Amino acid sequence: MDLRFPEAEPTLAEVQALDAAVGPSLVAEGWEREYGGAHRAEALRHRLLPALHALQDRVGYISPGGLGELCRRLDVPPAEAYGVASFYAMFSMRERPVRVAHVCADLACQALGAGALLDAVQAQCGDPNQTGVPGTWQPSPCLGLCERGPAMLVTEAGDPAHEAVVAPAIADDVAVALRVGPRNFGVEVPVVAAVPQAATPAGAAGLVLLQRVGIVDPASLDDYRAHGGYQALRNAVTMGPLDVIREVTESNLVGRGGAAFPAGRKWAAVANQPVRTHYLVCNADESEPGTFKDRVIIEGDPFSLIESMTICAFATGCEQGYIYLRGEYPRACEHLQHAISVARDHGYLGANVMGLGFSFDIEIVRGAGAYICGEETAIFNSIEGYRGEPRNKPPFPVEVGLFGKPTVVNNVETLVNVIPIMLHGGAAFAAVGTPASTGTKVFCVSGSVSKPGVYEVPYGMTLREMIELAGGVPAGRSLTAVLLGGAAGSFVPADDIDFPLTIEGAREHNTTLGSGVVMVLDDTIDLLTFLRRIAAFFRDESCGQCVPCRVGTVRQEEALVRITLGRQSRAENELDVALLREVGRVMRDASICGLGHTAWSAIESAIDRLGALQGVDA
Amino acid sequence: MNMLHETPVGLPRRAVTLQIDGDDVKVPEGSTILDACKSHGTDLPTLCYGDTLDPVNACRVCVVEVEGSRALVPSCSRPVESGMVVHTDNERARHSRKMVLELLGSSVDLSAAPRVYGWMQQYEADPSRFGDVNTMKTVRQPAKVDNDLYVRDYSRCILCYKCVDACGEQWQNSFAIAVAGRGFDARISTEFDVELPDSACVYCGNCIEVCPTGALMFKTEHDMRAANTWDEDAQQQTTTICPYCGVGCNLTLHTQDNTIVKVTSPHDHAITSGNLCIKGRFGFQHVQTFARD
Q1: Phi/psi at A15 (5° precision)
Q2: Where do the domains of chain A lie?
Q3: Is the pLDDT assigned to residue B132 strictly greater than 50?
């Protein structure tokens, strides 16, 4: 390619940031020899997202000079790099203060007073997105801190950049964050605080996937091994790849990210592909509002994810693994980075893992604020350095996935289930839960409950029991509804919570477990505000590729706002509800991916099952 | 005048039989559902589909129902399979088509997109259900006039990705434009929205060739439309050979009142596939500029 680069010059800070992230100018380093003519651009493209992070982390925004220098080094067309950078909410394309407080405005935090917090922040700190000041704030989608909202993430660009999460946050915290930055906030609460079951011996005894959270030192490989770590991998290697896949198939483990696809079938499909290389992508981009289970697993027990991925790689012949981690999870990123480097130093990753004769390594790719990148093909585009737009299926990832190669893509929770399967066998795993929903499930219980957090239970507990396990609705309030599965899920009314939380139980109830979100609403929460937030969420997070979702999510939000403002006549509202149904139907029928397919589900269920939007006419 | 129109002979392909609206249709393996529909005589609307480009299936106006598939399927990109049962015109497919046209019509000025008005009538699409199209902020934005050759009027853009693909790796390899932003804010843009003369644009005009809605337009056409003198019925199209170099690209000169107003190139030309360079596309002024200043 004969590319044309912008004339703007990078600053010294930007040059240093790129030196650290992508090395000195590759032109000078003889990359022509290393990569060879035509393939050089493809060989470098996947470094685009990390390089954009480097610029953003160092100076707080992506400047024309910085982007131009990045493009020169990676041989990426500037228009494309701009297109990629502007796709992500965490990258600013305009000069922005070095300190930014991202204040969660999403569903679970709304149930915990985010609305009042945002008003207070506005009063105390002024408008969001100010320029020419040392620090500014902006409302943010779900930060995955739902057990202790309302939450805030503070970022400060520099060398090095700093980040901190503050939850629960008050307006004073935001003011301090803007004035002093993230370093003021000290140590985050221990991750085990998000696992209420761990507080009692009886509760802790029932934990499988979460058993080590709060028990092991997440920084210590020795401690992990002392608590049974890496026994599962030894068992797997003794069994051999075919038997590992057979056990996973027998266990009837299905994906925990929402689609509930059988993991064994996916693994077998990749293992059987003659094409090499095989890739493993761990989807840790949990951005579904109300979901924070993967964060807890990674922060509390990072080595278990590394071991699980190694088992999967061994079984499916993957040589390289990627963990696509939400950009909003600083502690998870730190723990995981450390754990990977320790594992590598001790021969648990890299060439000839544990002397067992196979090679596997893991790279972390930090997301940059895009819900859609949790879609199983958008995640590939994002890792490869393209816009995180979903791909058309077929072909499916098991045939044509990351870098065009056969790819296993599994959610964090799905992967760590492999450890009990390897330790106790697929049959023992399948004996837990129900015949169609096997094993345990980690639920993210948030909103109006006394003890929000992640709860791990065998499949089969009813929704009512789950709410009671989480302490029930606080005294003096009454349950009005539960949002199951997050923004892409659906509402169930308060009088219909006696069905089992299994895949089949939810399906029979015309709802979905999704990623395990159980968001509890009481009579203090304004359902209409909640619905508007769901509509706004999908409008913000649509990638914009296909018409039904790009325009439909906007028209859906507009109609919902028109209705909920309460200024229309009943006839006008009825017309708008009919319009919502038509827009919802085309999004479900004709969108490219799951985001569009489900962008109307929660609102539809609120209309049909909760009677929302009735009696709001002027 | 057109030469080299034959498609090169390839290996023989197996035939696949599928059912379209109740009829058995036999097409070569690797065909898309859209190809099969064409051979069956079924006319499906398309917008983002380009006969010289890889399908991006972004507009979703060509969706059909395939039995066994949960969602509707974009006919422009889905390869046929033996035994597939396709419904192109049932209530479900018609509903999606109507809604796609309405949603587009509510957010984009489609007045320069050929055939769209007819489809709107056919599917009873009424974009005004979402508000007054002429005043909605989502439609209005000024046209970008930053060079003498062509105009970018993104109030007409449906984000079909065709100009990006033609400018990038599928044809021109200039990479002057890309999709930027996300969701409803997604737009076609140069880096930091710099004007075309500061971008990598080489003014080949191959993006104009593939634009389905008139968002990209010859400056001549744009000015004549503004002056209300643009009259396609009065225009003549003459295909000839570009005289500038030895490649011999075909040019189709669009003339009105014996003046060249626009240049296109036949898409079915086996070598150029509708693509030209700046000289063939825009180098026509000297033919009709008689005064010497």
Answers
A1: -60, -45
A2: 12-85, 99-184, 205-429, 432-522, 527-610
A3: yes
